[in-house]
Design goal:
The complex is a heterodimer. By secondary structure, chain A is mainly beta. Chain A contains no helices and eleven strands. In chain A, strand 6 and strand 7 form a beta hairpin. Chain B is mainly beta. In chain B, the strands form two sheets. In chain B, strands 2, 4, 5, 6, 9, 10 and 11 form a seven-stranded mixed β-sheet that branches. In chain B, strand 9 and strand 10 form a beta hairpin. Classes of the chains: A mainly beta, B mainly beta. Chains A and B meet through strand 5 and strand 10 of A and strand 4, strand 5 and strand 10 of B.
Chain lengths: 113, 113
């Protein structure tokens, strides 16, 4: 079945440093969704990318979707303590009648003030 | 307020004692799903539902049942819970399918002794 791999599993940074997490799917994705889960909280939707090669920005966050629609990345510029949490990518498989949603295992980001 | 609610939020039970975790959404969403979250394993989809009376297996359905008799409700049933079902459970809903933004409930922490 479809697998979504995410690296790194953990990342600890000093406040002000940049951070990137990478997501790779074993199959082509219809779209890629990114979620953030604060410690003790529930996942919250950040953004969705649909087109091959798409790049979207949200303030200090930059999201990319690969040309083959099998990989994606989230980059945070100049991290802040409010960025702490686990970042998940998720993607439905492309085509067919399968409406499963597969999540990566997430990247836990901690920020040292 | 648009939301997904789950009850109970915390539950400690014993092996073999049937339990139900309720999930309700007030956004008239068609797609609902259940996930379990375990350390190092991320979010894994248990079951999903495309609409009333339409359900299908996710990646880890063994030991669980669901039903979708009303659009707003999607209960998760553990007929004979076992310790390996100790986990954090999230219900989620979206407008139409896995292709859309998922709205998550607050989570239910289940311990099976």
């Amino acid at each position: 079945g479809q697998q979504v791999m995410q690296i790194p599993q953990y990342q600890h940074v000093q406040e002000g440093e940049d951070f990137t997490t990478y997501c790779n799917s074993s199959t082509t994705l219809s779209n890629i969704q990114w979620y953030k889960q604060r410690p003790g909280g529930h996942p919250v939707f950040l953004i969705q990318l649909v087109k091959s090669g798409e790049v979207k920005k949200q303030k200090r966050l930059t999201f990319q979707f690969g040309e083959a629609k099998k990989n994606s990345s989230l980059h945070i510029t100049a991290t802040q303590t409010t960025d702490v949490g686990t970042y998940f990518c998720a993607g439905p498989a492309s085509g067919g009648s399968n409406y499963k949603l597969t999540f990566g295992k997430g990247t836990l980001l901690t920020v040292n003030p | 307020e648009a939301q997904v609610t789950q009850n109970p939020r915390y539950l400690i039970t014993v092996t073999g004692k049937k339990l139900t975790v309720t999930c309700s959404q007030n956004m008239n969403h068609e797609y609902m799903s259940w996930y379990r979250q375990d350390p190092g394993l991320g979010l894994r989809q248990i079951y999903y539902s495309m609409n009333v009376e339409v359900t299908d297996k996710g990646d880890v359905p063994e030991g669980y049942k669901v039903s979708r008799k009303e659009k707003r409700n999607f209960p998760l049933i553990l007929e004979s819970p076992s310790p390996n079902q100790t986990s954090l459970y999230f219900c989620a809903s979206s407008l139409e399918s896995s292709y859309n933004e998922q709205f998550f409930g607050p989570g239910t922490r289940l311990t099976v002794l």
